[in-house]
Amino acid sequence: MTLDRKFDPFSDSATLPCREVFTSRVIDAPLTRVYQAFSDPHQLAQWWGPKGFTCTFQEFDLRPGGKWQYILRSPDGLNHNTECMFLDVVPETLVIIRHESSPQFQLGITFENQGRQTIVCSSQAFNSIAEYQQAGNFAFQSNEESLERLAYFLNG
To answer: Engineered SS bond to 58: which of 24, 25, 69, 151, CB 3.0-4.6 Å?
Structure first.
């Protein structure tokens, strides 16, 4: 998974079919505080997911091999049962998640210290081009909204 390059995931590229969504945001909070908002399930449940969605966690075991199970409830009342596994966790640096529910993808999140601010980057690689084509636009918007919710959660 590539976490250090930026590109337009929705460009019309005839030579390289894309199946990755990349999002980044500068959060106006120190690294320790931003990572805590992700690593503490009580805080994470308050901002994870697209605008208007709510999260209920059944399991959150933030360690390599640990499970993350939650229900993401949409504004129209639909429940999306989600099962994930943490593949790698480097506190305050990197978290890699395998999304085992459909659509399947791997999500890498990096945290970079910038003094009083933190750069949060996510790279979401779908298992197939078909899954990317089905979910890519929604995923990009959802990731943007989730980072917006994180910024609002930390700064009001």
So the answer is: 69
